[in-house]
């Protein structure tokens, strides 16, 4: 008989141990009753602990559906029998979103798009109710409320009804509520919606600090480019499908050149003809970079943008009202990958 002792256990190769992702989504599909098109179509991606991760997509791309599933509000149903697809999975720090909703909610802080504060109550009272919902009480809860109000800069206004707070202060209190039970993952639905630029900057400062000081993983849905730019990685959604996942820098560098936009003097009706002539004269074009008409303008991608712009301007003088050339943005990435504007 061989006896296993601590000394003769095989050495663990740490390099082969993968950390548990903060969020894992695999083959997630959801079809609303009566809809032919799935709202989510076999979506798979991981978010690693400590990441700030954006889910970017236009209206109707499936962001809110994903949000509802991850927050355990809704079970995904893949077919007419309203059953979960057999290969679908979603976990938060290894806990199954469908089978262990209670464990998931303990690890998840949520900021919904619709405000969840009671405006007639004070900041203190809003947090107290939130704490009770999570089974917190006594000195521990009092300490957590003090910490939240001080972290989010609301200490001196704690006894005022929330209806007197600005939009930015309310969003900070929402953050305090979401973080009161000290979750490892913060999920936010369109967090900047309705905030002025100063409040947005303030919100992002708070998010950066939550990650740096507490190691919180942050996942947010957005359709704002500047918000997506600030994230470590982003998942681009379109029509229920995950189009790609990568860092903003890598996504933009995948566009092999500058982005050129041409506005025809004779208006949008002249754009298609102009696009054909530019395509014929200045090719070859990389796949996805050829001239196309978007919102009445001709848009194309070329490595030597400034020279091409000068050549277009001298080729058809009088036909061009405005020409622009610039580095690709995430909007360009979306256009390049989907052929549609965000
Ligand atoms: N309750 C519902 N019943 C039927 N179809 C729905 C329902 N909710 C959403 N859909 C459809 O599912 C698809 C995805 O919608 P979803 O709201 O998830 O997208 P979104 O990216 O969050 O858009 P938005 O930013 O406008 O909220 C859309 O085609 C939408 O019309």
Automatic annotation (TrEMBL):
<dbReference type="GO" id="GO:0005524">
    <property type="term" value="F:ATP binding"/>
</dbReference>
<dbReference type="InterPro" id="IPR017871">
    <property type="entry name" value="ABC_transporter-like_CS"/>
</dbReference>
<dbReference type="Pfam" id="PF00005">
    <property type="entry name" value="ABC_tran"/>
</dbReference>
<dbReference type="InterPro" id="IPR027417">
    <property type="entry name" value="P-loop_NTPase"/>
</dbReference>
<dbReference type="InterPro" id="IPR003439">
    <property type="entry name" value="ABC_transporter-like_ATP-bd"/>
</dbReference>
<feature type="domain" description="ABC transporter">
    <location>
        <begin position="23"/>
        <end position="264"/>
    </location>
</feature>
<dbReference type="InterPro" id="IPR003593">
    <property type="entry name" value="AAA+_ATPase"/>
</dbReference>
<keyword id="KW-0547">Nucleotide-binding</keyword>
<protein>
    <submittedName>
        <fullName>ATP-binding cassette domain-containing protein</fullName>
    </submittedName>
</protein>
<keyword id="KW-0067">ATP-binding</keyword>
